[in-house]
Amino acid sequence: MFDIETIKNNGLCAGCGLCAGIAGHGTSPIVMEVSSEGYMRPNAVDPIPPALAETIDAVCPGANIRHDATTVGADYHPVWGPLVEARLGWSTDEELRRNASSGGGLSGILVHLLASGAIDYVVQTAVAQDSPVRNAMVISTGRDDVFHAAGSRYAPSSPLADIGARLDAPGRFAFVGKPCDVAGLRQLARRDPRVNQKVPVMIAFMCAGVPSYGGTSALLTAMGVQDESRVASFRYRGDGWPGFATARLDDGTAFTMDYDTSWGRILNRHLQFRCKICPDGVGEFADIVCADGWYCDADGNPLFDEREGRSIMLTRTLRGEAIVGEAITSGAIASEPLSLRSLNHMQPFQARRKGMVLPRLAAMMLSGRERPRFINLALGRNARMLGAKEILRSFAGTFRRLLAGQGRD
């Protein structure tokens, strides 16, 4: 059985907060805290009842990512997961399109859901009220809330840390989270009927990994910020596409850095270990998933120069397809078709990511680590597509890091 200490000690915790959220609210035996490495981690402050421990073992997305066999049908793409339709889209609200990270496609869908009355509120992640360089779960009930929550937050978040309270509270809500967050909630739905009753839609954004808060500090230092306590506002990107990392001090001084440098050279060097063995960066368990729909050069490589934003929008369920169709019909978002060939070029890392998982799991096994349960995800097929050279490289790099003691909380 995977308990929270086993999960943490083997580098499997994603920091989603699900274990704390289902442990009860008010007097939960599990609390989420920032670890010494700068990630969100659960801490057991009281004994965990056996029934709760059994549920955590079954639904934790750090230890489990599993599709039901019925999910992996004819519409299951080995790389991109369950797929009903692929589009490019963007918000028709020009302010929202600019403020969001990638054209406001996801934000436009949320505004439509709220305006239509399909949901009462949205659970999503935004900047914390008490710190411009920290994240917090927020409740959005209208367009302005969605606007202020828009934009990527490349740092730890635990949006499921109060899911029990959400499921007990009045109203139905859309849940927005990282792929692992959504996978955890979907796995909880198999055990708790309240999830499907209270959460009519789950939306994910594609994710390349969660940097630590130390990554944020490293980014601020590289931008020229000498005293983090003087940062009055901070955004990782947005206000354009892809937008610039922007920090403003209490005296109005601004520091900026382009996206390719901030993410590509700094933040992604601070990823937690669990993200390096992630089999689902594309939100396979969501109803709808969005991502950057990068323009590409003549060789098919993504370009990161500033343009009007646009989102990849994949629908994975009939419910998700109906919602996107209604958002288009209502005028909340505009869209155009997207081929899978173009998708492969726009998101090349995600196109090959699943192929790296099996060799990295093999490295975990040989180094004596407990391995997560990844089931019905076409990992073998993806590894074969990756090729022997890349398989060996993924295995060797992971094995070397594990022997050096990396990947333990």
UniProtKB/TrEMBL annotation:
Q: Which GO terms describe its biological process?
A: chlorophyll cycle
Name the InterPro entries on file.
Co_F420_Hydgase/DH_bsu_N, FRHB/FDHB/HCAR-like, FrhB_FdhB_C
Single GO term (MF): 7-hydroxymethyl chlorophyll a reductase activity
Q: Where is the Coenzyme F420 hydrogenase/dehydrogenase beta subunit C-terminal domain?
A: 172-338
Protein name, entry field = Coenzyme F420-reducing hydrogenase
Task: List residues of the Coenzyme F420 hydrogenase/dehydrogenase beta subunit N-terminal domain.
Answer: 89-161
